[in-house]
Each structure stands twice: as C-alpha cells, then as structure tokens.
UniProtKB/TrEMBL annotation:
Protein name: Small-conductance mechanosensitive channel
Annotated TM spans: 67-88, 115-135, 141-169
Family, as annotated: Belongs to the MscS (TC 1.A.23) family.
Alphabetized GO MF terms: mechanosensitive monoatomic ion channel activity
Compartments, record wording: Cell membrane
InterPro entries reported in the protein's UniProt record: LSM_dom_sf, MscS_archaea/bacteria_type, MscS_beta-dom_sf, MscS_channel_2nd, MscS_channel_C_sf, MscS_channel_TM-2
Record Pfam families: MS_channel_2nd (PF00924)
Organism: Allorhodopirellula heiligendammensis
Mechanosensitive ion channel MscS domain location: 156-222
Its membrane topology: Multi-pass membrane protein
Domain of life: Bacteria
C-alpha cells in the first residue's frame, strides 16, 4: 500500500470514529443522558498499561477524573458509616435500657447488641451499594466460604449457639452466684461466645459458653431462701434428750434470722449412728444472701451449746495395745499361736566380733 492510500485509509477511519462519537453524543443529548466514561477499575488498568510503556501523560487526567471523585466518595462513605455507628450506639441504649429495667439485664444486653449489629450491617451494605461494590458477587463469595469457615470455627460457632440458647432459656442471669464448668463465681456478663464469672476471692474467669451449656449448672441464688445444715457428732455416752435440747437452743438463738412458714423454720434431726459418734443434723432456713454468715454463726452456736450442756464431741482416735515378749525370748519359752500348737522359740547365739572378723 502506497503512502497516499495509507493516508486516505487512516483519514477514513478517523472520520468514522469521529462520526460514531458524535452520534453517541447526539443520542445521549437527545435522551438526556451524559456520555458514559470508563469506570475507575478500567481506567486504572489502562493507566497502569500506559505507565508500563513509559507514558505518563494521562496521570493528571486520571487523578482529576477518577481518583479525586473516588476518594471523595470514599470519604463520604466513611462519614456515613461513622454517623451510622453513633446512631446504632444510641438506639442500642434506647432499646436495651427498658428491657434491662423491666424484664432482665441479660436479655436487655442481648437485644441491644442485636439492634446495633443489624443497623451497622444495613448502613455498611447501603454505603457499599451506593459506591458501586458488587454486593451480589460478595454474597456469593461469602456463601461459598461459609462452609470452610464453619469447619474452621466450629468451636466458636458452638459457643455462639450455646450463648444464644442460654440467653433464650436463661438458666441464670447477671448477678447470680453459680457453679458451672467446675468454676464457682458471680455472673458478671453473658456474651454470645463467653460468660464472665467473678470468684469470691476477686478473680475474673472467662468460660466458653459451650462448656457451660454442655455440663451441670448449679445456681445458688436462684431462690430467695436457702437451708443451712450443720452435721455434728456427739459421744455415745451423751443423753439424747440433753443433746437435742442443746442443739435446739442453738437454733432458738438465731430465730431472728430464721425464715418461718411451711417447710421452713429450723429442725434438729438424729441422722445416724457412726463409727465413733452419734450423728445429728441442725437445719435452719435463712435468706439466700445471708447464707454464709449464718452458716458460720450456726456452727459456733452448736459448739457453744454442746459445751454448755457438757456434751463432748468425739474425734477419731486409735488405741494401740503392745504386748511385751522380751522375757519369753530370753527364757526360751514357747509362744502360743492362735488356733494351733505352741511353737518353741529358738534363740540364735550372738557371734563374737573376732569370729565375724575371722569369717
């Protein structure tokens, strides 16, 4: 192809492209739509391709046409997310406080956290949608990764499921003193994954919810009343009536703390005959919050009244009888064996030191 033909071909192509561009602009003008421009992803790819060929002429246009609007949109999106965060925190308090006051503190915290997470999820999804993020593809990717995440975090998901069940069925609430997963303490917080307990010696223990839900839970403060029971053993020689009267006086001295009513009050029970003592049980119903102080007071009263009545409390002891046999050994006498004939005791003479050295 000669230069004249090449020039004519290039000019014709330019005219066609120009005509196509003008036609597209005319159509956009007639329909009221602005001419479309390439997205930031395509523009970034084209710029990188040009920069790879040492062509930096489009950097300024890219910064003003694509980068600056994208950064402005991102800043606006972050600001909207921040506002949504503040609104979510406010609505969480507004929703949770009435539930905490009127229903239960644990349920109120759970409802408040659910409201917070739902609002934040909606705000972030709306911002990403406005910015043009492919939410459909993101959802498909999350669904595909869900199976792998479930296998990797099966322990965490088990804690989450146990936490939801505990918040729904409420075997205990914040402030209860419980024994769960071999840990005793007062419940400080019930979260979706863990439960926080404060022990009597002021230690904080965080227990996974699956360990609590999968074992036995003992709630010591669920009921308003508890029974203090003191087990005591007295000497076999003590009179039963005197002992019962002394133990009853111990109960009477704490009558101001006793809870009256059917199945309540106090009682002295003859529990059994032990190996070395007669077993008694002293029972007293008290308020649950006063259990430990009154348990100590009742033990002290039992000891005081038994001492005043002259009733002794035996303690385990062993009598050892030693029979001396040195005299019979020296005289060469026989030692009788129970159930058999007497056996003569042989005395082995003592060897001299010289004999031992010679040997």
């Amino acid at each position: 192809m000669n230069p004249t033909q090449s020039f004519v071909s290039n000019t014709a192509s330019a005219i066609v492209e120009s005509g196509s561009t003008l036609a597209a602009s005319e159509v956009a003008r007639q329909t009221g739509e602005a001419p479309s421009k390439p997205g930031i992803a395509k523009a970034t790819s084209e710029l990188i391709s040009q920069m790879a060929h040492r062509d930096f002429s489009e950097v300024g246009q890219y910064a003003t046409t694509h980068l600056a609007p994208a950064m402005l949109s991102a800043a606006i999106g972050l600001f909207v997310i921040f506002i949504g965060y503040m609104v979510a925190k406010y609505l969480m308090r507004v929703v949770s406080q009435p539930v905490c006051r009127r229903v239960d503190e644990t349920l109120g915290k759970f409802v408040g956290k659910m409201v917070f997470y739902l609002i934040m999820l909606g705000v972030v999804g709306a911002v990403l949608s406005v910015l043009g993020a492919p939410l459909g593809g993101l959802a498909a990717m999350l669904a595909a990764a869900g199976f792998a995440i479930g296998l990797a975090f099966q322990g965490t998901l088990s804690n989450f499921a146990s936490g939801v069940l505990m918040l729904v069925f409420r075997p205990f609430k914040v402030g209860d003193f419980v024994t769960a997963a071999s840990v005793s303490g007062r419940v400080n917080e019930i979260d979706l994954f863990t439960t926080t307990l404060d022990t009597p010696d002021n230690r904080r223990i965080i227990v996974p919810n699956s360990s609590i839900a999968g074992g036995t839970i003992e709630n010591m403060t669920h009921h308003k009343h508890r029974r203090v029971e003191v087990l005591v053993g007295v000497d076999y020689g003590a009179d039963l009536q005197i002992t019962r009267a002394a133990l009853q006086r111990a109960i009477d001295n704490l009558a101001e703390h006793m809870i009256p009513g059917e199945g309540r009050g106090g009682a002295v029970v003859l529990a059994g005959l032990g190996d070395s003592a007669v077993q008694w049980k002293v029972r007293l119903w008290v308020a649950a919050k006063e259990y430990w102080p009154l348990n100590e007071l009742l033990i002290a009263e039992v000891k005081t009244q038994l001492d005043a009545a002259g009733v002794s409390i035996p303690f385990p002891q062993m009598d050892v009888h030693v029979k001396s046999t040195s005299e019979s050994i020296l005289t060469g006498s026989t030692t009788p064996i129970s159930g058999g004939a007497p056996v003569a005791t042989r005395i082995r003479p003592t060897r001299r030191a010289a004999d031992r050295l010679a040997g």
